[in-house]
Specification:
This protein is of the alpha/beta class. It has seven helices and ten strands. The structure holds guanosine-5'-monophosphate. The site of guanosine-5'-monophosphate has 18 residues, from β2, β7 and α6.
């Protein structure tokens, strides 16, 4: 699969320069296959969240690499479940491992775990997210990756795990940011470099409008 990904990226990359066309690829796909559901939820189940378009994800992974290749990233951190696919594809371009925070269903947390509380945008509940201490440490330069950024709770939880480990957050790569929900701006104000490949300005009456 790795070879296939690289071939596809090479073939497309000779036709494009920089990130704008890749962004357009993603925006066009969101307009074509995204479904605006109740509660400000954008469903992209046919290419990100249930069925995964691997060729498109390779393009996005390559774009994250272009944006963060000089940041000294040695590890990617994401959160289960939907972040794992895009994180793994992105990791191929950095040649680094992926760690994913697990959503613990129990409050019986052992001493060998870093933990943080995260309010889930889609499920409406609060869960403890956990990472085993052996997989995050003070030498790490972390790229956070997730599929969506809404209010910012998931990324703040991941940052809290990094802070607890003394790991440095070099930035966050997001597939789709719903900019009007404010999480991205909050994180940028905290000094975190957040790069979102598609930024949605509004989704009123089922119409998706992107930031310019
Ligand atoms: P936040 O924590 O920033 O409020 O929300 C981000 C998390 O909630 C992501 O990890 C993602 O799983 C989920 N999420 C937020 N908004 C959406 C959305 O519109 N569609 C989908 N499919 N997931 C979302």
């Amino acid at each position: 699969m790795v070879e296939k990904c690289h071939n596809i990226v090479y073939n497309i990359s000779i036709k494009v320069f920089g990130g704008d066309i890749k962004m357009k690829l993603l925006e066009d796909r969101i307009l074509k296959d995204g479904i605006v559901a109740d509660g400000d939820v954008l469903k992209v189940s046919s290419f990100v969240n249930h069925q995964i378009d691997v060729e498109l994800m390779c393009e996005l992974g390559k774009e994250f690499h272009r944006l963060f290749k000089d940041s000294g990233i040695n590890k990617i951190l994401t959160i289960e479940a939907s972040g794992i696919g895009i994180a793994c594809i992105t990791a191929q371009y950095f040649s680094v491992p992926v760690v994913f925070a697990k959503k613990s269903k129990t409050s019986n947390i052992s001493d060998s775990l870093y933990t943080a509380k995260v309010h889930s945008f889609t499920h409406g509940n609060v869960s403890d997210i956990v990472v085993d201490k052996q997989f995050l440490n003070s030498d790490d330069k972390i790229l956070l990756i997730d599929d969506f950024l809404a209010n910012g709770c998931a990324l703040l939880g991941l940052k809290a795990l990094c802070d607890a480990a003394g790991a440095q957050v070099m930035g966050a790569g997001i597939v789709i940011e719903k900019q009007y929900q404010g999480g991205g701006d909050k994180l940028r104000e905290m000094g975190i470099r957040v790069e979102s490949l598609a930024k949605i300005k509004s989704m009123e009456n089922g119409k998706i409008v992107f930031c310019k």
